[in-house]
Write a structure and sequence with these properties.
By secondary structure, this protein is an alpha/beta fold. It contains 19 helices and 14 strands. Strand 1, helix 1 and strand 2 form a beta-alpha-beta unit.
Length: 459
């Protein structure tokens, strides 16, 4: 006889990038019998000491997560994790330094990998302690597959009607152009040298990002003049300041700065994507949207190669304008599909076959979380976790009122503008109609930014 199943806790940091994929994952979990809690990562953390004991799905494993992981474990939750940024990575040693911690990895019960290459890197980390690694892919890719693209088709059609034929520019400069400038992680290191005068990786990467940031600002007016009858849509990274881009729009009426909703309908509607070294380029390649990698400078080990490899490359502004015009005029389409598949195959599992969301839920079921919640921890340990989280929550909520702080509420609203239970339910119903599944999944608000998902008729 099955006991009460574990609650699956799904935090969302960036609403426009993560929410739809995590709703799909939540639906797949509910369908198999799991209750789910989903919502803003910050607000889930504030209430995690009052949630049912369950399995927390972590989207990163950085040193910054040590405190929260300790609280989760003290409260009796288990942690299953993946790195949302694990598809487009820096060289292994630098990736390890920026994105992984032996302390956080020790707290994980299972690791979910984007693909074979991601699994290789995780298992090769010096702090890896043998946590099972599963090749699941990521539900963000599920939504790009042919069987689910219609989820965004109506929105894509509306965008085409509103903006006509348009060029999409995706920027990825939050580390030198952060929403709060003093949080631009690579801006200060770019001015520093190691003892002996050698450039650090952070300095080199920061220098390249800064130069590319300036080139992209110079590129926009030229592209606007090159195709004056077409709209050009810039989507800044979710953590970026929009102001530098907005400053350019004053002189170019065909230039728009927009970062609403998921990027997928924009990719479906766009004639071409222009970017440099970002995950969105891979998403476009999976969809079959033509991509041009604008590389006015190259940085060797500092370049993000995978996205550029599935794109046409433009090394000058003239070359960029020419390639964009050829694509817009229908003279060339995306990079050859077989070539794209060859490049992406080692990096992304579940490009076909069983959906990534179902593979992730398989891991949870096989781990026994459907039969029982994680075992209760000793009372003293639980009280330590409860008190620790109460103190942390008070501190974070104070910081939400501090101008310029990384926990400031304006920055939270920038990354997680908010969504209602009815809006999530509408997306659940749409996914269900497409796949012929999820008809019994219901959404109930738990608080302003946190929701429960379960089967109708079950409490």
């Amino acid at each position: 006889m099955m006991d009460k199943p574990s609650t699956i806790i799904i935090p969302v940091e960036s609403q426009v990038r993560e929410l739809d994929a995590k709703i799909l994952l939540a639906c797949a979990a509910v369908e198999r019998g799991f209750p789910v809690i989903i919502g803003s990562r910050a607000f889930i953390h504030y209430s995690v000491d009052s949630l049912p004991r369950g399995v927390y799905l972590a989207k990163s494993m950085r040193t910054l997560s040590i405190r929260m992981f300790t609280i989760l474990r003290d409260l009796g939750h288990e942690i299953v994790g993946w790195d949302e940024e694990g598809l487009v990575r820096w060289p292994d040693d630098e990736y390890y330094r920026w994105r992984l911690s032996p302390v956080t990895l020790k707290e994980l019960s299972h690791l979910l990998a984007w693909g074979e290459d991601d699994a290789r890197v995780l298992c090769g980390y010096p702090g890896y302690a043998g946590t099972p690694v599963h090749l699941t892919g990521n539900p963000r890719i599920d939504l790009l597959r042919p069987e689910l693209r219609s989820f965004y088709q109506q929105k894509a059609d509306m965008l085409k009607e509103q903006y006509g034929d348009f060029i999409l520019i995706n920027t990825n400069f939050s580390k030198v152009n952060h929403f709060f400038p003093h949080l631009s992680e690579l801006k200060q290191p770019a001015l520093e040298l190691e003892a002996g005068g050698e450039e650090t990786f952070d300095a080199g990467k920061g220098r390249l990002k800064q130069v590319l940031f300036e080139y992209f600002q110079e590129m926009l007016p030229a592209l606007c003049r090159s195709v004056p009858k077409m709209n050009i849509i810039v989507r800044p990274h979710p953590a970026e300041s929009h102001q530098p881009w907005l400053d350019i729009t004053r002189d170019y009426p065909n230039l728009k700065i927009i970062n609403e909703d998921s990027v997928t309908p924009w990719l479906l509607a766009a004639k071409v994507l222009v970017a440099n070294g970002c995950t969105t380029m891979i998403e476009a390649a999976v969809l079959g949207t033509p991509v041009v990698a604008y590389q006015p400078v190259t940085g060797g080990k500092y370049d993000d190669d995978l996205p550029n490899e599935v794109s046409y490359r433009a090394y000058s502004l003239d070359e960029l304008c020419l390639q964009v015009k050829e694509i817009v005029n229908g003279e060339k389409g995306p990079v050859d599909e077989l070539e794209r598949s060859r490049i992406l195959g080692p990096h992304i599992a579940a490009l076909d076959g069983r959906l990534s969301c179902d593979r992730m839920v398989d891991v949870l079921v096989d781990a026994g979380y459907l039969q029982d919640p994680p075992p209760a921890v000793p009372l003293g340990k639980y009280l330590r976790g409860w008190l620790h989280n109460r103190v942390r929550t008070v501190s974070k909520k104070i910081n939400m009122r501090r101008p310029g702080h990384r926990n400031n509420f304006a920055y939270h609203r920038h990354r997680f503008p908010g969504v209602t239970a009815d809006e999530i339910q509408e997306r659940v119903n749409h996914l269900g109609n497409i796949l012929g599944r999820f008809q019994h999944v219901r959404v109930v608000p738990l608080s302003r930014y946190v929701f429960t998902m379960g089967c109708k008729g079950k409490k």
